[in-house]
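re the bet — no i am not wrong, look at it urself. input seq straight from the record:
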Amino acid sequence: MAYFFLKLIPPRSSFPHDATPEEMTAMQAHGGYWHALAEQGPAIAVGPVFAESGAFGIAVVEAADAAAAQALADNDPVIKAELGFRFETSPMPSIIIRTSAGGAAAAE
């Protein structure tokens, strides 16, 4: 397995402060989709980032390869809604993951 960083880029820098009802509906489905992937295992960490330059979303995922990671992004309801969102997918050659006991484990 390999690890990937997915960055969800919204359709404009003012998002989510000026989200339309259609975008909010898609974002609710987006949240449900990633919550399920976190429960199933491929998604390690998912959430919004409120950076000075504007908000975006992140996901760290475990997948067989880049194509499988991209498939996770492509199947996101917010992408399928065709509202102008897009993902950038980047490989992570190694990752340190906190264990449930509070320690850390390295994975490569």
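see?? Residues 13 and 54 are 5 Å apart (CA to CA). told u. also Strands lie at 2-9, 43-51, 54-63, 86-92, 95-98, 104-107. so pay up
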